[in-house]
C-alpha cells in the first residue's frame, strides 16, 4: 500500500521518458496512489532558458510520449497538468495533495512550493527524493549529444 494518496512532480520531460524520468515517476507511483504530473509548456519562460532549448520537442510530443509510457503500468493513476510557470499553483494548492516527488534538479523549488502552500493555510508537502540523484542521466546531456550529431562538435558552454 502506498504511503500517500496524492503526490505531484513536474518537469520538461524532453527526450524521454529517459531512465532518469522513469525512475522519478516510478518513485512517485511507489509512494502515491495518484500522481499529478506537471509538464512544462512551450510558452513557459522557464523552458526558453534551458540549455539547448531548440532541441526540446513540442509540448504535445513530450506529453504523447510520456502518456504512452505511463499507460503501460499506471493508467488511471495520473493526471498530466500543463505547467506554464514554475509551480502549477492549481496543483500545489490542492488541499488533498500530500507529497512532492523531486530530483536533485528540482530540490530548490521544493521550499518555495511549501512556502506558497503555507501562505494559503495549507499543510506543507512531504518530500520524496528520487534515487536517480547524481547518476548523470539528464535531458540536457541528451540534447548535447543531439547537438553534436547535428553539428559535428560539442556545443559551446558544455
Structural description of this entry:
With 158 residues, the chain is of the alpha/beta class. It has a single domain (4-151), classed as HUPs (Rossmann fold, 3-Layer(aba) Sandwich). The protein is 39% helix and 20% strand. A five-stranded parallel sheet has the order 3-2-1-4-5, with helices on one face. Strand 1, helix 1 (19-31) and strand 2 (32-40) form a beta-alpha-beta unit. The N and C termini lie far apart (43 Å). The model has no long low-confidence stretch (mean pLDDT 83).
Give a short synopsis of this structure.
The chain is α/β, with parallel strands linked by helices.
Characteristic terms for this protein:
158 residues, globular, 39% helix, alpha/beta, five-stranded parallel β-sheet, Rossmann fold
